[in-house]
Amino acid sequence: MSDRKYSIGFVIIGLILMLLVSSAYQISYHAAMERAEEEKYSETKDNETQESIETEGEALKNECYYLMEKNGYVVVYLGDKKTVYEYTSIEVETLPVTLQNEVKNGKYMENMEELYGFLENYSS
User: Fold this and answer.
1) Contacts of 84 (CB under 8 A, 6+ apart)
2) How do residues 9-53 score in pLDDT, each as one tens digit?
3) pTM of the model
4) Cα of 24 vs its chain's centroid, Å
5) List of residues 6+ apart from 37 with CB closer than 8 A
6) Which pLDDT tens digit goes with each residue over 107-122?
7) How far apart are CA 59 and CA 57, in angstroms?
Protein backbone atom coordinates (compact mmCIF):
# COMPACT_ATOMS: atom_id res chain seq x y z
CA MET A 1 0.00 0.00 0.00
CA SER A 2 2.86 2.32 0.67
CA ASP A 3 3.99 1.97 -2.96
CA ARG A 4 0.53 3.03 -4.01
CA LYS A 5 0.72 6.16 -1.75
CA TYR A 6 4.01 7.15 -3.33
CA SER A 7 2.76 6.63 -6.88
CA ILE A 8 -0.39 8.71 -6.20
CA GLY A 9 1.81 11.40 -4.60
CA PHE A 10 4.13 11.44 -7.63
CA VAL A 11 1.17 11.73 -9.98
CA ILE A 12 -0.30 14.61 -7.99
CA ILE A 13 3.07 16.38 -7.82
CA GLY A 14 3.50 15.83 -11.58
CA LEU A 15 0.07 17.32 -12.28
CA ILE A 16 0.79 20.34 -10.06
CA LEU A 17 4.13 20.90 -11.82
CA MET A 18 2.42 20.68 -15.23
CA LEU A 19 -0.18 23.23 -14.11
CA LEU A 20 2.54 25.58 -12.83
CA VAL A 21 4.57 25.29 -16.03
CA SER A 22 1.56 25.82 -18.28
CA SER A 23 0.40 28.78 -16.16
CA ALA A 24 3.84 30.38 -16.35
CA TYR A 25 3.86 29.83 -20.11
CA GLN A 26 0.43 31.45 -20.51
CA ILE A 27 1.46 34.47 -18.43
CA SER A 28 4.69 35.00 -20.37
CA TYR A 29 2.88 34.48 -23.70
CA HIS A 30 0.25 37.12 -22.88
CA ALA A 31 2.92 39.55 -21.67
CA ALA A 32 4.89 39.06 -24.90
CA MET A 33 1.76 39.61 -27.00
CA GLU A 34 0.97 42.84 -25.14
CA ARG A 35 4.53 44.12 -25.69
CA ALA A 36 4.32 43.25 -29.39
CA GLU A 37 1.03 45.11 -29.74
CA GLU A 38 2.45 48.16 -27.94
CA GLU A 39 5.52 48.15 -30.21
CA LYS A 40 3.34 47.78 -33.29
CA TYR A 41 1.14 50.67 -32.16
CA SER A 42 4.13 52.91 -31.42
CA GLU A 43 5.76 52.03 -34.78
CA THR A 44 2.52 52.81 -36.60
CA LYS A 45 2.19 56.10 -34.75
CA ASP A 46 5.84 56.99 -35.47
CA ASN A 47 5.46 56.13 -39.16
CA GLU A 48 2.36 58.30 -39.46
CA THR A 49 4.09 61.32 -37.98
CA GLN A 50 7.44 60.82 -39.69
CA GLU A 51 6.41 59.67 -43.16
CA SER A 52 8.16 61.98 -45.59
CA ILE A 53 8.94 62.34 -49.24
CA GLU A 54 12.43 63.29 -50.25
CA THR A 55 13.02 65.44 -53.31
CA GLU A 56 14.62 68.86 -53.52
CA GLY A 57 12.88 69.67 -50.23
CA GLU A 58 11.27 67.45 -47.66
CA ALA A 59 7.49 67.33 -47.16
CA LEU A 60 5.58 65.81 -44.31
CA LYS A 61 2.60 63.63 -45.17
CA ASN A 62 -0.15 66.25 -44.69
CA GLU A 63 1.71 69.34 -45.86
CA CYS A 64 0.40 71.81 -48.42
CA TYR A 65 2.19 73.02 -51.55
CA TYR A 66 2.37 76.18 -53.63
CA LEU A 67 2.81 76.44 -57.38
CA MET A 68 4.89 79.47 -58.24
CA GLU A 69 6.72 80.84 -61.26
CA LYS A 70 10.47 80.77 -61.51
CA ASN A 71 12.28 81.66 -64.75
CA GLY A 72 9.06 81.13 -66.72
CA TYR A 73 8.40 77.64 -65.37
CA VAL A 74 6.07 76.28 -62.69
CA VAL A 75 7.97 75.29 -59.56
CA VAL A 76 6.39 73.44 -56.63
CA TYR A 77 7.24 74.82 -53.20
CA LEU A 78 6.47 73.45 -49.77
CA GLY A 79 4.04 75.27 -47.48
CA ASP A 80 6.74 77.71 -46.35
CA LYS A 81 6.92 79.08 -49.94
CA LYS A 82 10.75 78.98 -49.70
CA THR A 83 11.73 75.31 -49.98
CA VAL A 84 11.60 73.90 -53.50
CA TYR A 85 9.80 70.56 -53.58
CA GLU A 86 9.95 69.92 -57.33
CA TYR A 87 10.96 71.68 -60.52
CA THR A 88 8.60 71.08 -63.44
CA SER A 89 8.91 71.45 -67.21
CA ILE A 90 5.56 73.28 -67.36
CA GLU A 91 5.95 76.70 -68.93
CA VAL A 92 3.74 79.29 -67.26
CA GLU A 93 2.79 80.89 -70.60
CA THR A 94 1.24 77.60 -71.79
CA LEU A 95 -1.32 77.68 -68.95
CA PRO A 96 -4.73 79.38 -69.22
CA VAL A 97 -4.54 83.09 -68.31
CA THR A 98 -6.42 82.75 -65.03
CA LEU A 99 -4.15 79.90 -63.99
CA GLN A 100 -1.08 81.92 -65.01
CA ASN A 101 -2.16 84.66 -62.60
CA GLU A 102 -2.80 82.15 -59.82
CA VAL A 103 0.65 80.62 -60.30
CA LYS A 104 2.33 84.04 -60.36
CA ASN A 105 0.63 84.83 -57.03
CA GLY A 106 1.36 81.38 -55.57
CA LYS A 107 -1.37 78.81 -56.30
CA TYR A 108 -2.24 76.84 -53.16
CA MET A 109 -2.45 73.04 -53.35
CA GLU A 110 -4.01 71.45 -50.28
CA ASN A 111 -2.50 67.98 -50.61
CA MET A 112 -0.37 65.71 -52.76
CA GLU A 113 -3.34 64.32 -54.70
CA GLU A 114 -4.37 67.79 -55.79
CA LEU A 115 -0.77 68.64 -56.69
CA TYR A 116 -0.21 65.54 -58.81
CA GLY A 117 -3.61 65.98 -60.44
CA PHE A 118 -2.49 69.43 -61.59
CA LEU A 119 0.91 68.17 -62.73
CA GLU A 120 -0.65 65.32 -64.74
CA ASN A 121 -3.09 67.70 -66.45
CA TYR A 122 -0.54 70.31 -67.49
CA SER A 123 2.64 68.29 -68.09
CA SER A 124 3.53 67.59 -71.68
Assistant:
1) 56, 57, 75, 76, 77, 78
2) 888 999 999 999 888 888 888 888 888 777 776 665 555 444 444
3) 0.51
4) 37
5) none
6) 999 998 999 899 998 8
7) 7
